[in-house]
Structures are given as C-alpha cells and as structure tokens.
Amino acid sequence: MRPEMEALRSALAGISSRPAFLVLAPSGQAAPYYLIEPVWAARPYDVPLTGDLSAWSATVRIKAVGLTVEQAMTHQAAARDALCPDGRRGYLTAPGRSVSVLFERHEADYVDLDVTPPKFLSVDTVRIESVPA
Q1: What are the counts of helices (DSSP H) followed by strands (DSSP E) for the chain?
Q2: Which of 5, 8, 75, 85 has the fewest C-beta atoms lying within 10 Å of its C-beta?
Q3: pTM for the complete prediction?
C-alpha cells in the first residue's frame, strides 16, 4: 500500500505549494495543507504499508486544512479536481500497480477549536483500488 499512498500524497502536493501528509502533520505546520488518512488506520503504525501482489481496495479520507473555511473548501475543491478530474474517477501512477481513485462523498466542513489559531477542515472520502500492473 505504500506506493499507492505515496502516489496520492505526490498528486496532492503537486497541486499547490503546500505539503500533503500521510495521517499526521508535524506540529506547527502552516496551513493550508492536506492530511491523507486511511479510514481503518486508527493506529497507523499497526497498518502494513508494504507492497502486495494481490488486488485490494481501501477507503481514504482527504482532509484539506486551512485558516478559514473558504481556504479549506477551496483547497479541497482543488484536491477533487486533481484526483478525480471527471468528478468521479481518476488514476495514480505507482510502480508496478494500476491504481484508480473513486470519489465517494464529501463528509464534512468543520472548525478545530483545539488548536491555536483554530483551523478549518474540509473532508472528502475516496476509494483507492489497486491491482498489479
């Protein structure tokens, strides 16, 4: 799963000068940025991210983080356009794999008041489908 997640991170980092992180951003990271979170990865260090010879599918949350709700929503719209240009499906380049991204749904727009300054998040869910090339 590591090549697919890195391809997803690279696709998001490539659409802006801001970074994309797998699961957690470093403390003090300036917004806007993206967080990429496999839905089943409550404890990311327990999840195997190594390569696999079989086909698999996983649900992933894309969180756009901004200093204003407008910034987060605009950043999320750019992610949707980059990952699924036709509004439904897109493709990633990962070594030895054929990878598609399917837009599933927009989850929420909300403010995180537990950080200073408060940050706004816009959250989408996509499905990553990967098969050996």
Answers
A1: 2, 6
A2: 85
A3: 0.84
